[in-house]
Specification:
Radius of gyration: 23 Å
Strand order of the largest sheet: 10-9-8-4-3-2-12-11
CATH topology of the largest domain: TIM Barrel
Mean pLDDT: 95
Largest sheet: 8 strands, parallel
Bound molecules: 1-deoxynojirimycin
CATH class of the largest domain: Alpha Beta
Shape: globular
Number of domains: 3
Number of helices: 15
Structural class: alpha/beta
Amino acid sequence: MAVMRAGGFPFLREGVDWWRSAVVYQIYPRSFADSDGDGIGDLPGITSRVWHLAALGVDAVWLSPFYPSALADGGYDVDDHRDVDPRLGTLADFDDMVAALHGAGLRIIADIVPNHTSDRHPWFREALASGRGAPERERYIFRDGRGPGGAEPPNDWQSGFGGPAWEPVGDGQWYFHYFAKEQPDLNWDDPGVREDFRTTLRFWSDRGVDGFRIDVAHGLVKDLSEPFAPWSEVAEVTRADGTHPLWDREGVHEIYADWRRVFDEYDPPRFAVAEAAVHPTRRARYASPEGLGQAFNFQMQEAGFQPDEFRAVIDAGLADMRVSGSTTTWLLGCHDTLRVATRYGLPRDPDLNSHQVGQRWLLTNGAEPVADLALGERRARAAALVLLALPGATYVYQGDELGLHEVPDLPPESLQDPIATRSRGTAKGRDGCRVPLPWTPDGPSFGFGPGGAQPPQPAWFGRYAVSVEADDPDSTLSMYRRALSLRRSLTSEEEFAWVSDPDESVLHFVRPGGWHCVSNFGGAPVELPHGTVAVSSVRLEDGRLPRDATAWVLVED
Ligand code: NOJ
């Protein structure tokens, strides 16, 4: 059996390289747990549920933004990077939460949003108040409008959330916002911006944060020199040569080399993971040890539940590891995508990837086509065991450990996502995967908190409550707990080898220590290797693995 060494590190440094193989649980703070009954999840809520994370067996928590914000984009519109939103708690609550997480042996990763601030940030207020040509405008991207009085935007570029990417400020100037108009883009040529983010990284590192997730990591450095290229050229998102005016320009790596020096001031050095939607060949650079250290690999979110698609994504992720010397990240979903249990229940479309199928389905409020929810859940479990058996880090989005489904039919007035609100009904946005978690089968918000929940939870949420699944040995939660506890005891080495199987619907690979992961993507039940079946996503049938299922088998050499 050919064994392919996947990672490039000769050895793992105790307490330093924890992130290479970590299972990281993503908390979307506003919908995790609410301690005070205002319907918004908060930091004391997280502290009160550290037991769930410890029982689940994850290694770390990634906290989506918890900073003061008007929530124009779910908190990714930051008013102040060095404080806590009063609705979510205080800095003292943050310290208590870190102490509780560390006390349970869990690390914490904070989300840093350097591409933009909110329009309520003091810098942006100053920029507006100080007028045309003022140095305060240099922190953002202001340009004169075209036509008489600058009444037309500087160019035809569009926001990623729909509509124009420029907003007028009333004096003939416009500011650039790739995301919502409440999220003005920062100008990273400004030394004050650079200095301030160093301060922010130290601020949270000093408070015990172990690592950072860097939002829009590929977007900080822009070429807005004129003449502007038309949007028809700029709209294309990834380029392999670094020439895109908005994305993945060489200059971003200078910023991360600078941040690396800040990370290395700490013992152990802080770690970071880039959210960088770049050409796959350019991901490794973000993950280099001189840069952020790791880069998200989102390809699994686009793959359908098909053996060839899984295999291609796994091969690409492992190839990344060989190039970067870092590990890749595996994930099935996050706060930006349709819940995986639902996505896998939708019929395939040969012209669309799995993510696009989900987006189209949302536009029908989840009515068309009819999703096979049980099948989706079963496949999501099978897929989770595949990801958790791979070398590298795995990120689990809150609620996926329960097999929770998307809520596709939220009342229109409860939608908060700018993708939905800016689209005038042509897009549904991301609210359906951000509905507060169910903790108990009943109660006003299924145990989320003493009050209600926003967006509202549907009646069927109670079935997926943590307390219900904890009591059921066949639940998704119980499977995750078994798998995570086993994963800890298995290996920290990064070797991986495919095992060929004549059945095309089977994917089979082996890790050191005789750890075999076998998945049956369709067809008749399949034989498993001789050994101990340590965990399985469904019950076996006469010792064989049925379709849409994965098992881990420990085989003695
Ligand atoms: C990526 C985040 O994951 C998403 O939620 C956010 O809307 C954009 N970046 C803009 O900050």
